[in-house]
Design goal:
The protein is mostly helical. It has a single domain, classed as Helix Hairpins. The termini are far apart. The protein is built from 6 helices and no strands.
Length: about 120
């Protein structure tokens, strides 16, 4: 399986089957899964804690550490897919909708090569 040949739907099915085989559906509600995502994200962050930006190439060049990081990314992704299953959420549709909003909020001709937080329009205009 590779990104170019594996669909989101296939990954979601794999997660659903894994969960069903263990009868874990009762634990896979939005609260528990969102907490699991946060916890796994913190575990990913631990790999980068106190690492300076210029040290990243060395860190990522270490095959064992890179594999550990990949495992954390996979854990996060699995829980996101499980959450999409639990909420019956079309993940591709949600991502596309969000990217459209991001493109509107951060037009390339204005934000190319830089970032700042756009001000929200006030209620009174």
């Amino acid at each position: 399986m590779a990104d170019e040949t594996t669909t989101v739907s296939a990954l979601r099915r794999m997660l659903a089957e894994f969960v069903a085989e263990r009868e874990w559906e009762k634990y896979h509600d939005a609260k528990n899964l969102s907490m699991a995502i946060a916890i796994e994200t913190a575990e990913l962050m631990e790999h980068f804690q106190w690492v300076r930006s210029e040290e990243l190439p060395e860190l990522l060049g270490d095959e064992e550490r890179r594999a550990d990081i990949a495992d954390e990314v996979a854990d996060i992704t699995c829980f996101v897919l499980a959450l999409a299953n639990a909420l019956d959420l079309d993940l591709s549709e949600a991502v596309m909708r969000k990217m459209k909003r991001n493109a509107d909020k951060y037009p390339a001709d204005v934000f190319r090569g830089r970032y700042y937080k756009p001000r929200s329009p006030t209620v009174d205009g």
